[in-house]
Amino acid sequence: MGIENRVCLITGSASGMGKQTGRRMAERGAKIVINDVVAEKVADTVAEFKKDGFEVIGKVADITKKEAVVQMVNEIIEVYGGVDILVNNAGVDRTAALRKLSEDDWEITVNVSLKGAFLCSQAVHGHMVEKNHGRIINIASRAWLGGPGQAPYSSAKAGLVGLTRTLALELGRSGVTSNCIAPGLIHTPMWDEAPEKTKLMLLSKQPTGTLGDVDDIANAVMFFADDEASFITGQVFYVCGGRSLFSG
Fold this sequence. Notes:
CATH class: Alpha Beta
Number of helices: 8
CATH architecture: 3-Layer(aba) Sandwich
Strand content: 5-15%
CATH superfamily: NAD(P)-binding Rossmann-like Domain
CATH topology: Rossmann fold
Number of strands: 7
Helix content: 40-55%
């Protein structure tokens, strides 16, 4: 039971929420695959995890490219025999007023946040179905409900919710669950870099008046990843301090 000895691939996990999720899952005995596009960051994270005694490998791959995703998954299968848990964590947020957004802003946001999740899910689901067990956990955002200046990001995350529900319907009879976590304001390096005026504005709309922590997301991922969560699928789980209760 639990996640011990389960093989977990986390995209975009060389830093931030993905990295902390990997660490927490490794502490529970999972075998972790760190993925990112920056080779140095992957190497550093893998070295850090190994130093702490965790079972981990790193894979540098652009998840917006099908060939790269297929190769990555095949290499993981060669090492570990399969992927039990997929956490589609990688995402990009290009924020601006609609009139100022470029086609590139749209494409990179949608490709990383949504297309990447589709390609990774497609690559691993066959092996999960063969085992009659699997967990696909998508990291969306409260922003899927809509947000000013977030046309590409909100659209991509809304698409991720739709993908989650579709996978739950398609794969449920094969022992594979698909669920979605929608974080709100989380204390990450991106938050630290934000202008003070922006921070104050965002916190003013936060029912708790506080930020969440990366461990809040890691805890939610582990809940869905656990063997005991096998009857939960197709759900959107808000980890946002109540921010999802109203839009804007």
